[in-house]
TrEMBL record:
Protein name, entry field: 3-hydroxyacyl-CoA dehydrogenase
InterPro entries: 3-OHacyl-CoA_DH_NAD-bd, 3HC_DH_C, 6-PGluconate_DH-like_C_sf, ClpP/crotonase-like_dom_sf, Enoyl-CoA_hyd/isom_CS, Enoyl-CoA_hydra/iso, NAD(P)-bd_dom_sf
One annotated GO molecular function: isomerase activity
Assembly with partners or alone: Monomer.
Record localization: Peroxisome
Pathway: Lipid metabolism; fatty acid beta-oxidation
Main location: other
Catalyzed reactions per annotation: a (3S)-3-hydroxyacyl-CoA + NAD(+) = a 3-oxoacyl-CoA + NADH + H(+)
Residue intervals of the 3-hydroxyacyl-CoA dehydrogenase C-terminal domain: 493-579, 615-700
Length: 713
């Protein structure tokens, strides 16, 4: 039973802080005000439900408008409520109440109307939006499907072919496209509520019929007559789902619009939704959503500390990384001074950026005039003395300590006081780099991932003397350029590359044990990685790791033998695989098997058949163990941060949540047992479980219990 509500004396219904009802021009204006994104919490649902009922009972009200305060219309169900006992009214009940209204109900859309927010508008008679609004059903990105009628109503608005694409991809569309496809009735001048009230007055004056999508199958006729129209669209949308359950469930649910009565289909949708909510894949994707937002919150920074203002960034090095980083800043409208040692290198770097942006514009990824606008933000200069007007300097030069120290000595001499000085090093000791400057408090790491203009991850490395405001500056700026910053501490390889090296070592060990590159890669692609580690090595170039191992006096027998045979990967048309001219498709190469066999014979090793499960465990569990060691050393603050690093920097499959989330799913006790087994049977003491992992397993605890820690360093 819902709590009774009082109509306020001035015609306003104060239901709760979240929802208010005001009377404007004979319109019942329901205003939702539930920061930060007007998510459909129980209080919001209750407020809307009661407001619709009250507005229908009030004879002064001729039409109803549903609008939101703040930066966006409803951005979906309140994800924090999932997995908890449901509280009434359910969203489906709220939508049914809207559909039962005897008065026209108009949704006023602005910002990013998503998920349950869009589903609520689909129960309205009309939908209007401001021009820059975005509308989407991203439930699939949380491992779900629209659970409040979206799979059945959307296709009745836009047609099943476009409806299945929107729901399976989860990608939002702009208001103009929404108007074209019939998802909205009009684009209004802002504010959305005012535009909607003006629209409502037209509806009343013209006595427009109140169309309910649930009763309108007119957009289904073509696909009902020729189902291949739908199946082709569904196949195209689900093609790359790589072992994920939600995309297929979404496509199946939308198909019910073609052959199942509406109310029966709603029931099936609800069952399918509840099944996905309970699925580990959705739990992994919801974990990833919140872990990413936790990771960017810089903790244990003294109150009142603010980021330093950044108006211009200087980037030293116009190579692949420096150019990509420069593009990331220019993409967000931040001016860049791009510095090289000579005109030729600078011209080459600028040319690469121009080519990149032109290609994106040619694909329609950005407006045609954007490449020119963005190039205009890049000021190419020769000589480090040009860093003087930058508030942040990022060094992206050759990955050797000697060169980094030389560059930072020069930066220190020319950068303005208070500028933040960042190195893009992937591995090196930032404390050592900071020590050559007179301002170690301004020095930190910003480790971008190649291609830097695409990859979201940025490891923000806090050195021993890094000042809190410098750390905040780098983290907030990374977020501003739409990266996912994660604060980490100083060690060789920080978090991601340190765990990658552990996995690489296990890959080498598995080849010695008896596996082949193609078998190992197949196990990891079946796990959900888009590419296996050996194919990835061929793509990146095997000489990078080879040189790094030589610098540190480390030998990997098989990996080094491959490189010594001139097999450096795709760049030499052969590495762990061979490649046909002009093709990137990895082809298993008997020469590699012979090289592995020969190396093992020379080492006196007997190879054996290796099962897929052993490969999976030996590739993943040691990484998890290293992640636990990283937590012990406080190089990462939370297991969730490690998950975010692997999800956004190394292609860990989103439906597996990240290495530490996956460890909790497998069970830490199992992982400890398997690591101890391999440490014994392979005589590999390094595989023994680290103290933290052993303790948590012994206590029956999980890594998730540690996700409230403070930042590292
Ligand atoms: N529920 C709860 N909290 C949410 C939320 C949500 N749906 N969306 C965002 N937040 C929090 C977020 O955790 C952060 O909190 C703050 O809002 C700002 O978010 C029935 C079942 C809307 C594009 O998947 O895509 O509807 O860290 O940092 O970058 O069929 O948030 O500040 O404490 O991301 O400006 C479907 C998810 C849900 C949308 C804004 N909806 N959200 O991006 O801010 S399932 C979604 C987003 C559903 C129905 C189904 C983005 C955004 P804190 P932010 P932003």
């Amino acid at each position: 039973m819902l709590a009774p509500v009082e109509i306020c004396s001035d015609g306003r219904l104060e239901l709760s802080d979240a929802v208010k009802l005001a009377l404007v021009d004979h319109c019942g204006a329901i205003i939702i005000d539930a920061p930060p994104v007007n998510a459909l919490s129980a209080a919001v649902r209750r407020g809307i439900f009661e407001s619709v009922r009250a507005a229908n009972a009030d004879t002064a009200v001729r039409a109803i408008v549903i609008a939101c305060a703040g930066r966006t219309f409803i951005a979906g169900a309140d994800i924090t409520e999932f997995g908890k006992p449901p509280q009434p009214p359910a969203l489906n009940e709220v939508i049914t109440a809207i559909e039962s209204s005897s008065k026209p109900v108009i949704a006023a859309i602005h910002g990013t109307a998503l998920g349950g927010g869009i589903e609520l508008t689909l129960g309205c008679h009309f939908r209007v939006a401001v021009k820059d609004a975005k509308l989407g059903l991203p439930e699939v990105k949380l491992g779900l499907l629209p659970g409040a009628g979206g799979t059945q109503r959307l296709s009745r608005a836009v047609g099943p072919e476009f409806g299945v694409k929107m729901i399976v991809t989860g990608e939002p569309i702009g208001a103009p496209e929404a108007l074209d496809h019939g998802l909205i009735d009009e684009i209004v001048e802002g504010p959305a509520a005012d535009g909607a009230i003006a629209f409502a007055k037209k509806v009343v004056a013209e006595q427009r019929p109140l169309r309910l999508l649930r009763n309108d199958d007119s957009k289904l006729v073509a696909a009902k007559a020729d189902r291949s129209l739908f199946t082709a669209a569904a196949a195209a949308a689900t093609r790359k789902n790589r072992g994920m359950n939600a995309p297929l469930a979404c496509a199946e649910a939308v198909s019910w619009t073609l052959d199942t009565p509406f109310d029966e289909a709603l029931k099936k949708e609800r069952e399918a939704f509840l099944k996905l909510v309970a699925d580990d894949q959705s739990k992994a994707q919801r974990h990833a959503f919140f872990a990413e937002r936790e990771a960017v919150k810089v903790r244990d920074v003294p109150d009142g500390v603010k980021p330093r203002p950044v108006g211009r960034v200087a980037i030293i090095g116009a190579g692949t990384m420096g150019g990509g980083i420069a593009m990331s800043f220019a993409n967000s409208g931040i001016p860049v001074t791009l510095i090289e040692t000579g005109e030729e290198q600078l011209t080459r770097g600028l040319g690469m950026m121009q080519k990149n942006w032109d290609a994106t514009a040619a694909r329609g990824g950005i407006p045609a005039d954007e490449p020119t606008k963005r190039m205009a933000l890049i000021d190419g200069k020769v000589g480090i003395e040009n860093v003087g007007d930058a508030d942040l300097v990022i060094e992206a030069v050759f990955e050797t300590m000697a060169i980094k120290k030389e560059v930072f000595t020069a930066i220190d001499a020319h950068a303005r006081p208070g500028a933040v000085l960042a190195t893009n090093t992937s591995y090196l000791d930032i404390n050592e780099i900071a020590a050559v400057t007179s301002r170690p408090q301004d020095v930190l790491g910003m480790h971008f991932f190649s291609p830097a203009n695409i990859m979201k991850l940025c490891e923000v490395v806090r050195a021993k003397q890094t000042a809190s405001d410098a750390l905040l500056t780098a983290t907030m700026l990374a977020k501003r350029i739409r990266k996912t910053p994660v604060v980490v501490g100083v060690c060789h390889g920080f978090v991601g590359n340190r765990m990658l090296a552990v996995r690489g070592l296990q890959g080498e060990a598995l080849l010695k044990s008896g596996a082949l590159p193609e078998q190992v890669d197949a196990v990891l692609t079946r796990f959900g990685f888009s590419m296996g580690p050996f194919a990835m090595g061929d793509l990146a170039g095997l000489d990078i790791g080879w040189r790094s191992r030589q610098d540190r006096g480390i030998r990997w027998d098989i990996a080094d033998a491959i490189c010594e045979a001139g097999r450096l990967g795709q760049k030499t048309s052969k590495g762990y695989y061979r490649y046909e001219p002009g093709s990137r498709a990895p082809i298993p190469d008997p020469e590699v098997e012979q090289l592995i066999d020969g190396t093992c014979k020379r080492l006196g090793l007997t190879r054996r058949a290796i099962g897929d499960q052993e490969i999976l465990e030996r590739m993943i569990y040691p990484m998890i163990n290293e992640g636990a060691r990283i937590l012990e050393e406080k190089i990462a603050a939370r297991p969730g941060d490690i998950d975010v690093i692997w999800l956004h920097g190394y292609g860990w499959p989103i439906h597996r949540g990240g290495p530490m989330f996956y460890a909790d799913l497998v069970g830490l006790k199992t992982i400890v047992e398997r690591l101890e087994f391999y440490a014994r049977s392979l005589n590999e003491p390094a595989l023994r479980p680290t103290a933290l992992l052993a303790r948590l397993a012994g206590e029956g605890a999980s890594f998730a219990s540690l996700n409230t820690a403070t930042n590292p360093g």
